[in-house]
Design brief:
Strand order of the largest sheet: 2-3-1-4
Largest sheet: 4 strands, antiparallel
Distance between the termini: 7 Å
Number of strands: 8
Order of helices and strands: EHEEHHHEHHEHEEHE
Shape: elongated
Oligomer: single chain
């Protein structure tokens, strides 16, 4: 087996001079040059943007081992995204592929394009002229989800012992927190409705918790991706920030524009087999 006989596919796109030119500069996950692979068929031309990668790293067994190495995984994700971003910058519609979409050879990649030709073309038609924007909604660090079993009402403070008074104070603080949480949650729901009206599609991702949340302050209560026409990106940002303005305890982060990762359904996963 050749050490570089596997084909790593980064994205699906139409085969155009602009797309071909966009592959001239980026390097892939193994530092390899990128080029287009297209099937020999008539009609609208599709292509994979691909590179040749070492089987020692990207055959099924070593790849699975690498995916447990966070440093290797982070480097690979960055390189993969850099190729996709270069293609997007060419102005062509791009369907980003999942990380480590690997084929045995270029003929196998061409067969995959032929097999899913209509599917890929319909997605490209849908995504042409659109980008992905991310919207994360946070509740302030001092606002936490309500405790189970909390009930409304006021506790009298007069004529209480110290221990009882402490419990009353704690319950009142919890009620204030619960009221603040409800305010933020209602505002987040309204903001999501606003974003949905400004976009053409939405994918709701799981809110980030623990180490996934990074250093962002507060509790992530919304983590969504929106498909937005390129000419509406500024209006989308303005509308979302206006909807969030003045709501105490609410913070919004808008990221992008990105390639439409959340809206590009993927081909079959890792298809390489050792020979």
């Amino acid at each position: 087996m050749s050490d570089t006989n596997l084909v790593y596919a980064y994205a699906v796109l139409r085969r155009t001079p602009e797309a071909a030119a966009a592959t001239a500069h980026p390097r892939g996950v193994a530092g390899e040059p990128i080029h287009l692979v297209a099937p020999a068929v008539t009609g609208p031309q599709l292509a994979f943007a691909v590179g040749h990668v070492p089987s020692a790293d990207y055959a099924e067994a070593p790849l699975q081992a690498h995916l447990d190495d966070l440093d290797w995984l982070e480097s690979t994700v960055r390189s993969h995204h850099a190729v996709v971003a270069a293609l997007v910058a060419s102005g062509t519609a791009v369907l980003p592929l999942r990380l480590a979409t690997v084929y045995r050879d270029e003929d196998t990649a061409r067969q995959a394009l032929d097999t899913r030709r209509g599917y890929f073309l319909s997605l490209l038609d849908r995504l042409t002229g659109h980008v992905e924007l991310g919207v994360k909604i946070y509740a302030a660090p001092d606002i936490t989800p309500p405790e189970a079993g909390t009930e409304p009402g006021q506790d009298p403070v007069t004529a209480l012992g110290v221990g009882r008074a402490y419990q009353v104070i704690r319950r009142r603080r919890q009620r204030r927190n619960d009221d603040a949480w409800r305010t933020v949650a209602l505002a987040a729901a309204r903001l999501t409705e606003t974003a949905g009206a400004l976009a053409v599609d939405r994918v709701a991702h799981t809110p980030e918790r623990g180490s996934l949340a990074g250093s962002a302050p507060g509790t992530n209560i919304g983590n969504d991706a929106y498909l937005v026409p390129k000419d509406r990106v500024a209006a989308f940002r303005t509308g979302i920030l206006a909807a969030a303005r003045g709501v105490p305890g609410l913070r919004v982060e808008i990221s992008g524009p990105w390639a439409p990762y959340s809206f590009a359904l993927q081909p079959q996963p890792h298809e390489e087999t050792a020979a």
